[in-house]
Amino acid sequence: MYLQRRNRILRSNPAIRSLVAETILTPSDFIVPLFIIEGENIKEEITSMQNYYRMTVDVTVKEVKELWNMGLKCVLLFVKAKDELKDNKGTEALNPNGLMQRSIKAIKDACPEMLVMTDVALDPFSSYGHDGIVENNEIVNDATVEVLAKMSVSHAQAGADFVAPSDMMDGRIGAIRKALEENNFTKTGIMAYSAKYASCFYGPFRDALDSAPGFGDKKTYQMDYSNRIEAVKEAIMDVEEGADIVMVKPALSYMDVIREVKDAVDVPVSCYNISGEYAMIKAAAKMGWIDENKAILETLTSMKRAGADLIATYFARDVVRLLS
Ligand code: PBG
């Protein structure tokens, strides 16, 4: 057989394959989500997220130092608020001595170089488990945005490097930027969850924080998974309103959206490899049906190939181990 072009030449051994690889993962691609609880010296496994834990602040601080030494440079904080602190106004979210604010300070004190991002949304603090304030069974936009802006300033005050609004209210990025400016937080970044879809794959996360919505679903604020163009609109508007980084979430079922957003904006794009995506790999691996390590590398590489500059993932530790 005579062939002018033989594509298999570039696949013929590991050396040439690595020479021509278009996508290469490195530790600084990853954001490590952390779940923080009240108390001391507790590290408890999340049932639906095998080998992932809720930790008290003291344990979290040790973890963060370890992560930094592994080459990971960014953490994203979520807190589990006690039930008695939940209400319909986000009171606890604004508490200067709340669990989030204390966690930020403790981490920045212990490991000042680690970039600290914080989740900004009301669901962990909401008696309804919704990301915003509820009136007559509706999640009201403008009153919620006011609280989110104050919450962001409170996180900045505690020392957060980036706030990460995950709520999907309209106009919140502009309001947060304005509030940060007015309070002289000119160095605080905003990573906007710009295209966050109403997904069934958030289940294990809601177990982790006990934050499932008490009524209805999140479809009046999170996006419809039928839509792609709408994601571009959301991302462009967030950039115009002052977002430094935009995010697509979830990741695995939304690779086309990641690419579309990447091509449309001039800021870094992140994606969130969410809890249900983690749980699926863990469960299949436990059954012996897939190779966990290979699945981690393949899915994370695909996300970067799709256009993600940054990836928030519960596999951050594993992937750094696999890369070294
Ligand atoms: C809520 C929030 C959610 C996640 C991050 N922030 C869940 C939700 O919207 O119900 C999900 C993350 C994951 O599933 O890993 N503001």
Q: What is the helix fraction of residues, given as a range?
A: 25-40%
CATH homologous superfamily designation: Aldolase class I
Give the count of structural domains.
1
What is the molecular shape? globular
How much is the average pLDDT?
97
Oligomer: single chain
Structural class assignment: alpha/beta
Number of helices: 11
Strand content: 15-25%
Radius of gyration: 20 Å
> Quick one: CATH class?
Alpha Beta
Strand element count: 12
Strand order of the largest sheet: 1-4-5-8-9-10-11-12
End-to-end C-alpha gap:
42 Å
Small-molecule components bound: ligand PBG
The H-and-E topology, N to C, reads as HEEEHEHEEEHEHEHHEHEHHEH
Q: What fold name stands as the CATH topology?
A: TIM Barrel
Low-confidence stretches: none
Q: Can you walk me through this structure?
A:
This protein has helices at residues 14-20, 57-70, 99-110, 141-158, 172-182, 203-209, 229-241, 255-264, 275-286, 292-306, 316-323, and strands at 30-37, 43-46, 49-56, 74-79, 115-120, 133-135, 138-140, 162-165, 189-196, 245-249, 269-273, 310-313. It has 324 residues and is α/β, with parallel strands linked by helices. The strands form 2 sheets. Strands 1-4-5-8-9-10-11-12 form an 8-stranded parallel beta barrel, surrounded by 8 helices. Strands 6-7 form a two-stranded antiparallel ribbon. Strand 6 and strand 7 (138-140) form a beta hairpin. Helix 4 (141-158) crosses helix 5 and helix 7 crosses helix 8. The longest helix has 18 residues, at 141-158. The mean pLDDT is 97. The structure holds ligand PBG. The site of ligand PBG has 12 residues, from helix 6.
